Every structure is written in C-alpha cells, then in structure tokens.
C-alpha cells in the first residue's frame, strides 16, 4: 500500500456489524480484535481480568469487553447491540456487535442498517445453520455491500482446510442467490487469535487477509453527493423578530446528494416548485451543502411547507404514492396481520396507514416465497402492501438506503412493528404478485 493510499485510508470510517449464532464466539472475536489491535484501555483490561478470575477462568475472557449488560455476562450471550469505536493507523471503525440468539435477531436490523460491512460468524463444527441463513438474508435485505464469513473455532476441527472450504462454498452460494455483491471467507480461531489480527501459523494453506487486514483495506464509499438529492424538512424556522422580520427557513439534515443556491427544487407531496435563495450552515451562508450536513434552506417563494415535507431538485424528484410495496423484517412480538392499522414513519414524516396485503413470507431454507401467510411474526421477512392516508415521496431502497426505508409503528403504544425497505429489496429476488382489491379500505 502506497503512502498516499495509507493517508487516505486513515481518514476513512468503516461502519461494520457482527452477527452469528449463539456460542459461535462472536463476542470473543470482537474482544480479540480490540485487544490485539491495542484498542483496549488498561483499566478495561484489568476489569475483564478480574471478572474472569472471579468466574474461575485463568485467562481473561475477551468476550466480556463487549458483553456489557449484567444479564449478558450472567447468561454468556449478547442481548443488546453493543457499539464500539476504535481506530488503527490505517482506518477508523464503528463496530455494532449484534445478538446471535434467534429471539434478538431483530436487533441485527438496527446494527446493520447503517453498516457497510457485515461479519457473519459460523462455528466450524456446525457449519451453516438456519440462524446463519437468517443473518445473510438480513444483510442482503439491508443492502450491506460487503459480507465477511468468519469460520470460527478452526482449532476444534484441527485446522482442516476441507471443513472450511465446504462451509465457505455453501454460504457463498446461498448469499450470492440473495444478491450479496461481495463475500470474503476467512478461517479463524477467535480464542487463540488465528487470522484475526495476525496471520495464523496453523493454517498455512490459507493465503488471504486476516479479519483486521480486510477491514482496513475493503473499499468504502461515503460519497452520498452522487445520490439523488433529498432534504426531509424537520423544522420550520420563523423567528419573526425585528432583526429578521421576514426570515423563513426549513431546517433538517440532507439525506443524500447536494443542494446549491440558485437551484430549482420541488416540494413534496404538494408538488410546488421554487428556487433556493440561501443555505445556512453553522450560522453562516454557503453556496452549496451536501449529505449528511444539517442546514437551513431558504426559498424564493412563500410555500406552505411543514415537517415531513421533502425538498428535491426539479426533474429528479421521487414520485408520490399512497400504495407502498415493500419487504419488511418484522421485529415486534405481536404479529403483523392484514387489515391492521399502523403508523408509517418515513424520514421526518409520520402518516396513518393500513396493512392492505401480505403477499408472501420468505422461507430461509430455499429462499422460496411462501404465498399469502396472512401474518408475519417476530423475525419473519416478508412482502407487504401498505395503504397510507397521505401521499409519501419514497425512493426505492435499492436507490437510497436513507429515503427508501421506513418503520411501521403501533399507533396504540408507539412500539416499532417492522422495518421496511421500499421496492424490491433483494437484488436477485422476483417480486411476488400483489393480490387484493381496493374495496373496504377507509382511505
């Protein structure tokens, strides 16, 4: 790697998530990664050593570096998403350690929703199991561009290359059918540190990168300015003071793309057009602003704009619709059923909606679509059709992870029911036929 490339890498940030079945050694891998990359403070390591001794362990249990909840340490499992921030001379990282237990699969959606890479762990003794397939499906559903298959506990299968090769082939075939664009398989032993930070002396048949080396060198693109420009309005600023009697600005965070003074824009869902006269950022006027900056945009015309409206360039605005077809991951304990009244939250806009149809549920074993399941239960992935009370300006999730995603919420208590991805979420899947008619709906 050249000096210039190293300097550029040092300024980049990689968001990645880890996932794996219970007892696959995921927390141990994260702990080993932090420890061997010298990203653990002395007092943290001392606390882990003391906790390990109190449990009768001679060596420090590195899994305790991430299993921070008392319930997690007592049960030896990960429950909540644990975020860790660390850096090497070549790159900065935000790590989301997500739960492996099937009951907490929904938490992986949270951890992987903003990730550019997912590390999926597999126990070399067990191979690809249902939970492995579920994690691969979630990664594909969320359009995570890079997936690492970490085949752990190679020391317990005598570092046998055929074992690794069989698991890697099975997982790669499955994930490729889901449309995952890049898959890298790495044989490791998290407990002993083989191929985590340093190359393993026990697997000379493997010539690929270690986990950390791959994390440091995988291409990462943060160029949101190349995406369709989208600005969800969060707040309308009207000070109405003697100093600023006519000031009217629309504040929020640019979700994607860039906006310039003098640019013609459309306000959705009304469809009214105007011209940007000023952009205020950090108390100063600027000529251009881009994602993910938080700014205030001022327009030439006095248009009725409120929280939840979307500002987009004229000629590059998404179509508005009241019929949302999407793939969802159901995350609530209560089922999602046809006819259920929900709230749909998209960017800064929340509208009333009805679940009009549930055309299919994904079967993880063979990736087939189970037609007309009638409901989705916790951890199910399925297709839904939702009818909203007001028009929404959605992109497809394939075009924009920010403005193509939404949440379905229980209007009674505010519980999140499902995380949705508009349009066809799986890159290789065929859209199922949408059934049902227009009769019997309130809006």
TrEMBL record:
Keywords: ATP-binding, GTP-binding, Nucleotide-binding, Nucleotidyltransferase, Transferase. SUPFAM superfamilies: EF-Tu/eEF-1alpha/eIF2-gamma C-terminal domain, P-loop containing nucleoside triphosphate hydrolases, Translation proteins. Residues 11-225 form the Tr-type G domain. InterPro entries: CysN_GTP-bd (IPR041757), CysN_II (IPR044138), CysN_NoDQ_III (IPR044139), G_TR_CS (IPR031157), GTP-eEF1A_C (IPR054696), P-loop_NTPase (IPR027417), SO4_adenylTrfase_lsu (IPR011779), T_Tr_GTP-bd_dom (IPR000795). Gene3D superfamilies: P-loop containing nucleotide triphosphate hydrolases (3.40.50.300), Translation factors (2.40.30.10). The keyword GTP-binding applies. Transmembrane segments: none annotated. It is an enzyme of class 2 (transferase). This is sulfate adenylyltransferase.
